[in-house]
Amino acid sequence: MFHWLEKNPFFFAVGVFLVIAYAGIVTILPDFMESARPLKGTKPYTVLQLAGRQVYIRNGCNTCHSQLIRPFKSETDRYGKYSLSGEYAYDRPFLWGSRRIGPDLHRVGNYRTTDWHENHMLNPQAVVPGSIMPKYGFMFKKSADLKTAYAEAYTVKKVFDVPYNQPGMPKLGTYDQAKKAAFIQAGKIVAGMKNQGVKDAYKNGDIKEIVALIAYLNGLK
Amino acid sequence: MQSSNAINYDYTVAKYFTVSAIVLGIVGMSVGVIIAFQLAFPELNNFFGEYGTFGRLRPIHTDGVAFGFTVSGIMATWYYIGQRVLKVSMAESKFLMFIGKLQFWLYIIVVAVAVVSLLMGETSSKEYAEFEWPVDIGIVIVWVLWGVSIFGLIGIRREKVLYISVWYYIATFLGVAMLYVFNNMEVPTYFVSGMGDWFHSVSMYAGSNDAMVQWWYGHNAVAFVFTVPIIAMIYYFLPKESGQPIFSYKLSLLSFWGLMFVYLWAGGHHLLYSTVPDWVQTMASIFSIILILPSWGSAINILLTMKGEWGQLKDNPLIKFYVLASTFYMLSTLEGPIQAIKSVNALAHFTDWIPGHVHDGTLGWVGFMIIGGIFHMAPRMFKREIFSKKLVEAQFWLQTTGIVMYFTSMWIAGITQGMMWRATDQYGNLAYSFIDTVEVLHPYWTLRAVGGSFYLIGVFMWAYNIYKTATSSKAIEKEPQYASPMA
Amino acid sequence: MDMEFIRNLQGWGYVSMIFFLTIGFYIYIYYLYKSQKGGKKDYEKYSDMALNDDIDDTLVEGKHPQENKKDNEER
User: What is the ipTM of this complex?
Assistant: First the structure.
């Protein structure tokens, strides 16, 4: 029987496939439903936050910053309460990262302000001497992509039943409504910023990437 | 016997992929050296605006060496080894020749689109699966074409039994196909909502599930790109170059099944102390330890193949590459399980010890096998001697020095940072702020970048040597049976 | 079907599959060494597929019985 398998490439391939597929089925499937359940009080991202999250992803922030606080005293002292599975229920994709070249950001919204982020993104070394983070001045010039952010929110609502529009959850509505809501949210952040270019752009109906990113980071709690 | 004197092996496609392995190797590793220097000297981030930052470039490095250099190497060696151990020539089938060439050119197009899209920031953010959906579709097509080529060539083979290398190539094909498809399940947002960036997509899985699927993929992509096909290479190149039969062919079969079964369970060791279920973490930890057995089964089998023939190590630089490669394979397959022990992982996770571990596997094992394999193929593909033995020797020692510098500095950096993160003063408060633990790494990061540069210089030497071999080296009349001729 | 039942099913499936594969693996080891010893099948000669891989070299085990190296040379 074994030798037969060794010279029948088709059945050999089937055999190999069964052996390698088995582990995935056993490890991933059993708790799939449970792991997908949100924690009580966890809310999906607003459109502005999603736009900021996309900025975060596009610039590979996750290559240096983790978003996973492990249950050790040294980590909870430094970053806050350890992470729970349900908190990530609306994270598509997850952004845990694999290397902490910079500090963890899972609860950065608890201890950093709009003002701090503004200074830091423009010139990290001025805020944290010795920092090796790149300067992100271009985020003050590029406009946030609200359309793609809305497209993402709309998609997850439609395909994965993410509870937008439900009581106590962020409103989504049509694109125009979502845009209006994003401008209101952005207005509060812009009011806390100093950069004149960003303020002027906002007045002219344009939200810069940095505003969306700060909205996202402030929401990480 | 067939009277097939007129037929010769046709290495056209193997040559194509050899070129792409060299070119993409240089590209991927150059980016690697750049980002290594960026960590040591952060001003280097700011030269090209958003296109030159570490975060944008890192996926180009990782994907460039994994899916550029390594996959090209896999293809080049497959289109070489596949014909030879099945004793059938690509020239015997116009169809397979066409598929091979089509696969190559599509591959080049996909690589180009992938590099540009990553530079533009079109990324799914999942490690080693950063490509967005249009690139994913291209990759799947290229992969299916490779499958057609593998099974097509097997279909017209003369040798009935499949050599162990072919087993490993088949496993590579199946494993990557399964992993890649399931991890890249994503919904393009443009087609649902009708607006926004049409490249953009959103993952089918969320949060902890996404992490589970991703690291089931991430870990096993390492298995099926960096381990399985490389074992296929060494089981061919080492015996062939040394003229020694495999120490125990039976052991190679047993290790194969062992590796196939055990490897896939270990993915969860990337998620220890995370929010995935505890039993998954424990199981991953245990299976990681078990994984030493089949890995060392192969490695010891390979080293014992050289039994009584160690003199060749002195005379033949290619044997040096192969033997050091399997030694590094042993090292990293021991180091990995150690890092997967929960208490060790608590220290090592998120530190430089992890990239250190990855690189003694990739530079030492994967890189050396592809470089050494293509050196072996060159005289047979181009019917010329290897251009310079001295250059091969110099390259070997330079790269070995580079690897040692790389992993030693990363080990120290990783453990230092891990210890500093958890260090407390006499009152139980954290002893260091985060930036303290970054500044302390500067010398190690510099050393690492220099080590990486040594390796990169070695790759340039390899490229030059192969180029000269192909164009202006001394011609050979008869194909050498074992040791590759070199001047 | 409640969750408990599904969990039980998964548990049993997992255990029996591991059991089955382990037994299968040991039978395979036994088979390999038995057939080598009994002279039924010489696995070690398959190494020759790499060493004598010229297109005109003798096949280790051809698709047609008359091409077999074993039949031609050994026994």
Answer: 0.93
